[in-house]
Amino acid sequence: MALEAAAELIELDSVAEVPGAVAGWLRDNGIDELVCAGDEALQSMDWSGAGDIRREQRVARSGDLASLTTSFAGIAETGTLMLYSRAESPTTLNFLPDNHLVVLRRSQIVGVYEEAWKQLRGATGGRMPRTVNLITGPSRSADIEQKLQMGAHGPRTLVILLAND
């Protein structure tokens, strides 16, 4: 379903392959800088093989070309990603850069929305986060003259890095 929503999908055997896959995608798209979430999962990866890609952990700013975050869940029903805000993963990373790369483990995929919400309530001790973002494909709008425009309210490209482990 994510592919039908115009997301790109990169399948990986392991999350250990994320740095190489991210570096390859960025190089293929002429980007040499990446803004990252501070998740332990991303920070503990071995980025030594990522070449000359500059990574910076911070909130996204206007003009950033690419961000990398993790996803809390993937919802198979619609191909939607569920992300939530926290200190190490500010919401700006989901909306400001033109390209949003998201790591999703296959084990995080649930069938329907209700399952994702139930897991989120359990993971947060029943306290809902300040912001929950449900992302289905890149940003798009047809508000102006009924003409589809990609990136109208967020990233023009959504890349899901789907890891089997």
UniProtKB/TrEMBL annotation:
Residues 55-162 form the LUD domain. It holds the Pfam family LUD_dom. InterPro entries: FTHF_cligase-like_sf (IPR024185), LUD_dom (IPR003741), NagB/RpiA_transferase-like (IPR037171). This is Lactate utilization protein C.
